[in-house]
Design goal:
397 residues, alpha+beta, 12 helices, 9 strands
Length: 397
């Protein structure tokens, strides 16, 4: 592994950081999350058309940039520093890999250029509140999370006219505003139970999308209800796809990207805290000069740097084809963000507890991401189970 960033990677980080410093401060973030879409559409247009962010990690043949998960993780680290609300996670990290892995050539050719230009955003809808299970992050995703042949979840039924969907999906990131939905649905009953992926365009009859009130306002979520909705199968009819395996692979790469994003947020909130303790005075001296405060900040610094190393390795390893590395990096990064943001609230004193200060936004990001993709102990438990660390027998290599 070469830990040195290339000139192109450094340019991605530098350009994105400069843009976000100008256009995505705390007040801009608060304004953006109150908008109908939940993000700044003008900023998203700039990110798409000038920086090529939505198409960063897919081939140039479809209008993308042709980079890898590594570059996408580095870009997400910068977005995490400012908590920039955007459809990047839902579109480029969770949805595009599904289209690349399972979609037909016609579907890729029709949709990917529009995604790369920023014209089209996408979201992944899985039944109930099982996003972390569906992505294989905290458990085996070959279970009954998609419905399992019972009532509930999302059911797919084949008719003379095509496929029809019925059910409900919660925790759909950017589901209220996405122009394209990738829906995981159960079909086949008990005898031939399987999970398939379907495409739904914006405005499809029978689809109800409601934006939910979430703990982390910078990470918009929606509930999607489907009532006998006509849908298009992702991929070719008659072909058999390992949907669970593809979702687990997407979950692994998404975890690496999310780990980098969390590291960016933790690094920024630590920077702000260090700046503050140098200015705030007690007993005639800056509180940052007290040994106890120095020790706390030093511990936070070590934790953030360790999480950064894990996140960078996960991004590199995922791009190189390694599996089951993202979950552990995500666990370490989420823990670092939670501890750093909670310490930031305390070290900022009275102002850290106010709505006006941005410290609470970072704490909510940490808590919200653990609810969506964790919790940390289950991420680690699943990684240990996958490696057979405590089950006896030979340890998987």
């Amino acid at each position: 592994m070469d830990a040195t960033f290339t000139a192109e990677q450094e340019e991605i980080r530098r350009t994105l950081r400069e843009l976000l410093l100008k256009r995505c401060g705390p007040e801009e973030v608060r304004t953006a999350v109150q908008s109908e879409g939940g993000y700044d559409s003008a900023l998203w247009e700039t990110l798409a058309q000038q920086l090529g962010l939505p198409g960063l990690a897919f081939p140039e043949a479809y209008g993308g940039v042709g980079c890898s998960v590594t570059e996408l993780a580095l870009a997400s680290e910068e977005l995490g520093r400012s908590l920039a609300p955007s459809p990047l996670l839902a579109t480029a990290v969770l949805s595009v890999p599904l289209l690349l892995a399972i979609g037909s050539e016609d579907q890729r050719a029709a949709l990917l250029p529009r995604i790369a230009s920023g014209e089209l955003t996408a979201a992944l809808a899985v039944p109930g509140a099982s996003l972390t299970i569906a992505l294989g992050l905290t458990g085996d995703n070959r279970g009954d999370w998609a419905g399992g042949g019972r009532a509930g979840g999302v059911q797919a039924r084949r008719t003379d006219d095509g496929w029809r969907l019925y059910g409900q999906a919660d925790q759909v990131l950017d589901g209220h505003s996405a122009g394209l939905l990738f829906v995981a649905a159960h079909t086949g009953g008990f005898a031939r139970s399987r999970t398939l992926l379907f495409l739904l365009r914006s405005g499809s009859p029978g689809v109800t999308r409601v934006r939910l009130t979430s703990l982390d306002e910078t990470r918009s979520q929606a509930r999607v209800q489907l009532r006998d909705v006509e849908a298009e199968l992702l991929g070719e009819e008659g072909e058999s796809s390992d949907v669970a395996g593809v979702l687990a692979s997407v979950g692994d790469s998404a975890a690496a990207v999310l780990a980098a994003e969390a590291v960016g947020a933790a690094d920024r909130v630590l920077e702000r805290t260090v700046e503050y303790v140098k200015q705030r005075e007690q007993f005639g001296r800056a509180i940052g000069s007290f040994q106890a405060v120095k020790h706390r900040l030093a511990d936070l610094y070590v934790q953030v740097q360790a999480a950064r190393s894990a996140a960078y390795y996960a991004a590199w390893a995922t791009a190189a084809g390694e599996e089951r590395v993202g979950g552990l990096a995500l666990a370490q990064a989420l823990e670092a963000l939670r501890i750093t943001s909670s310490e930031a609230v305390q070290l900022h004193g009275g102002i850290g507890f106010t709505w006006e200060h941005e410290a609470h936004l970072y704490f909510k990001r940490a808590a919200g991401d653990e609810l969506l993709f964790g919790p940390v102990h289950r991420l680690r438990e699943h990684a240990a189970d996958a490696a057979r660390l405590f089950g006896g027998g030979e340890v998987a290599v």
